[in-house]
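pinned: reference chain
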Amino acid sequence: MQQIGSLRRFRGMEFAHRESAQTEFAQREFAQREFAQREFAQREFAQYVTSQSAALVRFATALTGRSRLAEDLVRDALCRAYVRWDRISAAPHARVRGLVVAEYLSWRRLFTARTGPDAVHRLAVLPRKQRAAVVLRYYAGLPDHEIAAHLGWRESTVRTRIARALATLPDQR
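pinned: its C-alpha cells
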C-alpha cells in the first residue's frame, strides 16, 4: 500500500514537472515570437520613416507654412506612431498623416505657430482648422469623408470650412 502511494506521489511529481517544463517552453516560445514581431515592426517602421519622411515634412510644411515647425510636427507624430505601430502598420500613411494634423491642431502648437514671423504663403491667412481641411483636400488629395474621419468632423463641416477658406484666400492673379 505504501509503495502504491509512493508511486502515485512520484507520478504526480513527474506530471507536475512535465507540466512546468511545458509551461516554461511555451513561455519561452511566446517571448521569442514576441521579440521577433517587435524586431520586424522596428524594421518596418524604420523603412517607413526612410521612405515617407520627406513627403510628411512637405505635407506638414503646407499645413504650418514653416519648415522647422513642420519638422517638429513630423518628429512628434512619428514618435507617437512608433508607440502604436503594431496597430497602425496596416495603413500607415493615412494614420501618420492624421497624427501630423492632430499635432498641428493641438493647443501647444497654437502658441508655437503664433510666436514666429508670419509665413509668406497664401495659406497663412487661414485659421488652423480651415488650413488643415484645405491642405488635406488639395495637397493630400483626400475626399471629404476621409478628411472628416481624420479631423473628427462631419462631411458637411469639411465642405463648409473649405468653402469659407477658399472665399478668404486672396486671389492669385
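why pinned: Residues 2-119 form one domain. Residues 102 and 151 are 8 Å apart (CA to CA).
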